[in-house]
Each structure stands twice: as structure tokens, then as C-alpha cells.
Amino acid sequence: MRRFLAAILCAALLCMAASAETFAVSTGEGALLLTDAGETLTQWGEYAALYRLSGADCPEERALFMAAPVLSSPPEGAETGEAARAYLLDARGKRLNDEMYTTANHIPEAGVAVVWQGEWAGAIDETGVELLPCAYGGVIPDGEGGFLATPRASFAYDADGYPVSARLWHFGADGAATDTGLDVQPYLYGAFSDGLAPVQVLTGALWRYGYINSRGELAIEPAFDYAEEFRDGFAAARTLEGKMGLLRADGTWALEPVYDDIGYLWGQGDAFYALRGGSVEILERETLAPRATHTFEYVDYIYAYEVDGALVIAVADGALTAISMDGEILFRGEVDSLSISSSFIARTGAAQRLVCATGVWPEQEYYLTDLRLRPVAGPYTSIESGLWWKDGEGRFLVCDYELYEETFDGESYTYPLASSYVYGVIDQDGNEVLPMAWNTIQYLSPQRYWARRGETWSMIDEAGNVYFEISQYVDLMD
């Protein structure tokens, strides 16, 4: 029999003022909700898993968490093969209600959470009061206190029993339910922005994307092969001929549909890219005015992606070109020999650092570089990710491990030794912030990390202060 005994060594090792932040942390054998002062908001052994549901822009006092309890049997109502269900907790660790959900999506601007039990969606407010039962294929807040939803009872199925369409209903803030008359994709998804939401509508025997208003009425006719949400007055849409442009809210084209791809919706910078033939255009986000055009001659294929608002990477026939948001070419390379990334858990403004990897896993080398690919720090065995960036300062998670060889059918293969992984944190110049001596490091905030060394988990800051510790001891018994 295997018995796990947890000993909380110090629930609050430092005297601190009232907490401003709440974190979900895991020890591998259980999970806790902690404040940044080291106060425990849930009991050890109560939950097997915990994670934050709310985005970083949600006020801390309104943050919601999902908490999967330690269970000996599936909860009542759960279906075979269904993902584990969990409770919703508030920022103080209190359950919102007694219901358990498969997953949820907190929408702070609407003051609600869309929740699922199995494949069926519903909605609750931030105190746990049910607004819609989990009886819909999809639910979208309308921005005015009501919802657009596809009732389970309206689903239409094909001969094989698969859902193919559903009727779209509007549920007003006053409780009034209205059939919009639109047949849409059964598992409705999306969001309203600028008063409109993209939706896939069944027109005759064909599916087309259009836009609805908050009452579920068509505001832009379904005439597109694909459509994205609006942002700052524009939305990317693709015509039936396969060309993309930017729409205004009145349905007219702000940017004519002559492009093969547009990186508008998810872009982070003050400009965005658009592909046309063998050319990459850099356009101003606010005015749509062109900043630069770079043409790649005689290419068989080309694609592009933005790197965290700092630059655009264009790949043409395996050749990589980095272009600044001002349209300047920063560097070139080959995709087969170079990997570029710059992603952060939390970021304000465009980061001035890239993570560059060369070589073949697991013997590759990682470097921290500037935007022109000039090395700043390295080599490292791995730079796992950017943690945060703000005002020219940042943190990066680095990793080291030992290698071993195994032979199969006369061939030798090299692998990392799982037990040898160690992690540390460096700053934007490669200076050590946390030593490469931790078995696990989880970023919580710029002031807090959750880290494991051996059997002990600790909440620490960069100065080495410990706010909370918990150790696990394993006793093996026959």
C-alpha cells in the first residue's frame, strides 16, 4: 500500500500585509489555493487539481478557479469517458455552488461564466447563480445581460446520428426567449465585439459565415467562407474565392479582399502582416496604411506569423526572414537550422528579446538574443519560455539535463535523463535570478514562483524569501 503524508512546514513564514493575489499550485499529489502572503485558502487533500479560470486582465478579487476534488468514484450524472468534473471557486477558495462542471469559461466583462457538463453548456453569474442550465450546444453572452444559445432540443442530426445544425435562440436579460429563425452550427462558439459576433449560418444546403447583433439578428449577411471577431472596428473575413480582407461593422470592405492571409485579430503590435502572392505587407493597425512590402521571387510557398508584437517571421521555400513592425528586415536564416520564438506568460509591450535554438534535439543549443539575432546570453540546454516582460525587463525559464544513450536494432539514440532535469530563471541580460537547482519552477507572478527541490515545494520570491513550504513523504508498505 502506498501512503502519502503531507506536512505543511510553514503556512506563512513571513508576516505580510493582506494578500493582493491568489494562486493555484500543485504538488503532484494534490493542489492548493494560496495567497501571495502564504495563506492557504483550501485544505490539503481536498482537491486533486486546481487551475485559474480567469484571464490576467480580470480583477484579482473577481478571479475564478476550477478545482477537481479527490474522488473515489465519478460524480453523479457524469458520463463514461467524460473529462473529470470540478467545482468553481472564488478568489477566497469558496465554492460558488454545489454543481460540478467539465470545464468553464469566465467572461469578466459580462460578469458570467459559461459552464459545461459533458458536452452541454449553460451559464452562471460570478456568485454561482444559474442563468441558463447546461442544456445548450453553445452559449454566447450578448453584451447586454442576455445570451445567444443553441438549445439541445433544437439539434438536427444526420443519418449517422451526428449533430449538423441547431436553431439559434436569444435569451434576454428580462428572461424573454426568442427564436431568431437562424440555423447555425450546433456547438455555438465565439464572442461579441463592437456589437457583432461571427456565426456560421446554414443557408439552403450551404454553410456561410456572417455576423449577428446582440439580438441574434443578421447584421452582415452570411456570404463568407470564414470570418473572425471584430477588433478596433475591423474584422478579417475570407470570401468564397479564398481571398481575405478587413470588414467594417457596416459590412463594407475597409481592406479589399485581395490577400491570401491576414494576421490581424491576434496580433500584438501596432502593425500587422498581410500576405498577397509572394509578398508580405506590413500595415498600420490603426489606419491600415502600408508601412512596407517585401516580395519573395519565384517561391512555391510562403507563410508568416507574428512574434509577440516584436516582429513578423516570413517563411518562403524554407528560408526565414524576420521583419520589424516598421518594415525593416532584421535577419535571415534557414528554417531547418534555426528556431525562433518569443512567448511570455505575462507581457506588457513588445519584448526586445528572442529565444533562438540551433541544432537537433536533445543536443540543441539555446540563446537569448536581441531582435537582430545577436546573442545576449547562452548557450543553454534549453530556454523553456519567457515568463514576463515589462518596461525593458524580463525573465526566462532555463533548463539543463543529462543525456544517456539507448540502442535499438543496432542504432544508438540519445535521450534526456528524466531524473536529471534542473531549472533556473535568468533576466533579459542572462543574469541569474534563480539558480539552476530546482526540479520544477512554476511562474506565479513577477514577485512569486512555485518551485520544487527534492520532496519540498516552496513559494518563493527572487530574493530567496520563502512564503510557504510543503513537503511530501512517501511511505511504502506491503
Secondary-structure blueprint:
Blueprint: E1 2-10, E2 22-26, E3 31-35, E4 47-52, E5 65-69, E6 87-89, E7 103-107, E8 112-117, E9 120-125, E10 130-141, E11 147-151, E12 156-157, E13 163-171, E14 177-184, E15 197-203, E16 206-212, E17 218-224, E18 226-227, E19 235-238, E20 244-247, E21 253-259, E22 261-262, E23 271-276, E24 279-284, E25 290-295, E26 302-307, E27 311-316, E28 319-324, E29 329-334, E30 339-341, E31 344-347, E32 354-358, E33 365-369, E34 375-380, E35 382-390, E36 393-400, E37 403-408, E38 411-416, E39 422-427, E40 432-438, E41 440-445, E42 448-453, E43 456-460, E44 466-476
Parallel strand pairs: 31-35
Antiparallel strand pairs: 1-44, 2-3, 4-5, 5-6, 7-8, 8-9, 9-10, 10-11, 11-13, 12-13, 13-14, 15-16, 16-17, 18-19, 19-20, 20-21, 22-23, 23-24, 24-25, 26-27, 27-28, 28-29, 30-32, 32-33, 33-34, 35-36, 36-39, 37-38, 39-40, 41-42, 42-43, 43-44
